[in-house]
Amino acid sequence: MNVSRIALAGGVAASTVLLLAGTASAHVSVQPQGEAAKGGYATVNFKVPNERDDASTVKLEVNFPTDHPLASVSPQPVAGWKIDVTRSKLAKPLEVHGKKIDEAVSKVTWTADGKGIEPGFFQQFPLSVGQLPEDTDQMVFKALQTYSNKEVVRWIEEPAEGGEEPESPAPVLALSAPAADAHGAPADDKSGEAAKEKMTASSDDTSSSNSDSTARVLGIVGIVVGVAGVAFGVLAGRRRNA
What we know:
By secondary structure, this protein is an alpha+beta fold. Helix content is 31%, strand content 32%. Strand 9 (142-147) and strand 10 (152-155) form a beta hairpin.
């Protein structure tokens, strides 16, 4: 009897832990498709789960960091959602590809045209962003999630370094090491090797062509010498007969 009670209590405790873990991990997050390399461009997805049983998510507002502004932000259309892109003046202009940019995207808002994200579902909102900063390892995007019952959940708490995850963490995009070709430099030396191989092949073809020409000339000379020898022999024979 005691064993059964202990097993039951253990099962309840385990279920509670799993339930709390699932609740804690269900928040607005951002992940790149592939990598988000410093100094480059990337496509990122904001993943929004619905955490309520009696309401749908009908709006998502993502605020962009002002300390690392992005000159290029292009949203991908999402069926059933209207997209608004807000741009703001920069305190310090950016220089991108030799051009000065004095404004950047400060916020992107998705508003549902229909039912939105219903209970038990999630939605992803893709963005193409760049040029990513080179002087930081991550970017923090503060987000607001609005439900159909007018409730607003503010995902704006920045995680402390080495500390526990806050109750309402802001989406954080981790940046990877810069790619070799982030600034137009070649990612490898394959193009150079290909050029060398092409030059070698061309040189080999030229050598082969020269060898063929030499062989033809020698052949013609041999034929001429042979004909001259035959003619000389004929003339010599005629003189002897005379």
